[in-house]
From TrEMBL:
Organismal lineage: Bacteria, Bacillati, Actinomycetota, Actinomycetes, Kineosporiales
Annotated organism of origin: Quadrisphaera granulorum
Protein name: Uncharacterized protein
Keywords, alphabetical: Membrane, Transmembrane, Transmembrane helix
Entry's transmembrane regions: 50-67
Length: 83
């Protein structure tokens, strides 16, 4: 199950980080240029998809914490001990 969940989790974490960086960067540019109307526009355009990605990443992390992990045998398990 982790084989499917981990790549999805990674994808949504990357999306939320990219969206957050874009949101903050665009708002910084709007502040520097003195374009107050851009602040709301950027927030309305980039905010919701970023928040959805963050929510999905959080839910996937929660599911992954309860999903059974594959347990591999330790190295040398089952080998005869030399006395």
């Amino acid at each position: 199950m982790h084989r499917v969940l981990r790549p999805l989790f990674t994808l949504f974490v990357v999306l939320l980080l990219a969206g957050g960086a874009l949101l903050v960067g665009a708002q910084l540019v709007a502040l520097v240029l003195g374009r107050g109307e851009w602040l709301g526009t950027v927030s309305d355009a980039v905010g919701p998809p970023t928040f959805v990605a963050a929510s999905i990443a959080g839910l996937l992390a929660f599911v992954m914490s309860y999903a059974p992990a594959r347990h591999e045998a330790p190295v040398g398990a089952g080998a005869a001990l030399d006395d």
